[in-house]
Structure formats: structure tokens, C-alpha cells
Amino acid sequence: MSDCIFCKIAAGEIPSNKLYEDDELIAFHDIYPKAPVHFLIVPKKHIESLLVAGAEDEALLGRIMLLVPKLAREQGLGAGFKTLVHTGKAGGQEVFHLHVHVMGQPQ
Ligand code: 5GP
Ligand code: ZN
To answer: What pLDDT is recorded for position 2?
Structure first.
């Protein structure tokens, strides 16, 4: 998706404040944080939203959810945090490349 901002971040074409990367996933701090710690976990594969994720994405989605607590702990959120996935325009989604928000206050 040549016009997708998160594809461009995943490809390294647009800089981000990155906290994690492997062959399938990237995590970076939200450019407009809504909490003291606010980062996004993004699959490198362009999936528009949960509405179009399929059975072939099962393992990838599982990897995202297990990366959430690992990175949250590293960011000082071991006591707890919020996760959020906006889905579709009606669900508040603004960037149409699936991502999980992780937000919290370090204790
Ligand atoms: P959503 O699609 O879940 O509503 O939110 C998209 C999120 O991506 C927003 O919180 C917004 O601040 C963040 N965002 C949008 N563009 C960029 C960008 O270029 N870099 C980073 N790091 N975050 C972005
Ligand atoms: Zn994309």
C-alpha cells in the first residue's frame, strides 16, 4: 500500500520513535501521545483493520497480543496498562492499517 503511513514506517521510509522490530512486527511511540506512555504495535503486513483480518492472520494477531505485555513492562507499565484497537471509521479508526494502542502511566 504505497499511500499507507504505517506501511511507510514499517519500510523505514518515514522515521518513527521505534521501540521494537522483527520480521513481522514493529512498535513505535504514538506521535500524539494520549498518555504518559503511548505506543503502537503494528504488523508489517498491510491489514486494513480487524474487520478484514482472516484465519491466515491468527498467529500474527497472537504474536501482537503477546508482545503487548513484554513491551509494556519494558516501558514501565508492569502494574497495568490500557489496550485499544479502533476498527473502521465508525469505530474511530484514522489510520487504516491495523494497530494496537498501548497506553499507561508508569508506576
Ligand atoms: P487510530 O487509527 O487508532 O484512530 O489512531 C492512529 C494513531 O496513529 C493516532 O493515535 C495517531 O496519533 C498516530 N499516528 C498517526 N500518524 C502517525 C505517524 O506518522 N507517526 C506516529 N508515530 N504515529 C502516528
Ligand atoms: Zn499499511
So the answer is: 73
